[in-house]
Write a structure and sequence with these properties.
- The structure holds two protein chains of two kinds.
- By secondary structure, chain A is mainly α.
- In chain A, 75% of the residues lie in helices and 0% in strands.
- Chain A starts with a helix and ends in an 8-residue tail after the last helix.
- By secondary structure, chain B is an all-alpha fold.
- Chain B contains five helices and no strands.
- The chains are: A mainly alpha, B mainly alpha.
- At the A-B interface, helix 1 and helix 2 of A face helix 2, helix 3 and helix 5 of B.
């Protein structure tokens, strides 16, 4: 489900960019930060995200 | 110069969409379900595409390509490509020991995550070139008709991946490490 939320955030960011909304960059940054945290957690815990 | 710049941004999005379509084709035709790190690489590819799309959509809205929009768009692409480097590099390192067959079938001798790492490095180089090319952007009005179709094609492949990952994960928060079936269908 978490990956679906990432993709939903990508679609929301696209929609914000299309409408010229000021939310575009904050949405992108939140998504990118969450993806980074997800990847770092994977690298610092026993294999969960493998393969 | 603005039209050339927009053509390059459109080409950038189209290449990323094609990579996502190819990954989806491998999933549907060869029956290879993407692992969690594979999905993270797809998400990174989608985030990268938001960069050139920012340039295209901002130009469509204002009618003028500005250096600011070009810089922001390329910044988005570079940041997202770095996330992709982390995800694909991590997956490569998981399979780097001698004797490890790797995950999934290789394509042209390399696994998909290796191709992804190469693609992310190429994206960083391309975005750097686009940033440099920003020096020649003129502030004249420009019309670019391909923006809407490009953005719709991107939205379609993201939506298809969204449905696919929901089918694959079912009601679970995370995916199994080595997925073998679509959990939503039992």
């Amino acid at each position: 489900m978490v990956y679906a939320i990432f993709m939903l955030l990508v679609l929301l960011t696209l929609a914000a960019a299309w409408r010229g909304s000021a939310l575009e960059l904050p949405l992108f940054l939140v998504t990118a930060a969450w993806v980074l945290v997800h990847l770092v957690l994977d690298m610092t815990t026993p294999l969960t995200l493998s393969f | 110069m603005s039209r050339l710049y927009l053509a390059a941004a459109t080409l950038n999005v189209c290449v990323l969409v094609l990579v996502l379509v190819a990954a989806f084709a491998v999933q549907l035709i060869l029956g290879e379900l993407p692992c969690p790190l594979c999905v993270m690489q797809r998400v990174a590819l989608m985030l990268v595409a938001l960069g050139p799309l920012h340039i295209l959509l901002r130009t469509q809205g204002s009618g003028v390509l500005t250096s600011r929009d070009a810089a922001v768009g390329n910044g988005i692409a570079i940041l997202a490509a770095l996330l992709g480097v982390i995800a694909s590099g991590r997956q490569m390192l998981l399979h780097i020991l001698p004797g490890d067959a790797g995950f999934g079938a290789p394509v042209l001798g390399l696994h998909l995550y290796t191709w992804c790492l190469i693609a992310f490095f190429c994206q960083i180089a391309a975005s750097a070139v686009m940033l440099l090319a920003g020096a020649w952007i003129d502030d004249k009005p420009v019309e670019w008709r391909a923006t809407r179709a490009t953005a719709l094609a991107f939205a379609a492949i993201v939506a298809a991946n969204l449905l696919s990952v929901i089918a694959e994960a079912g009601l679970n928060w995370d995916l199994p490490a080595d997925p073998a079936r679509y959990l939503l269908f039992g």
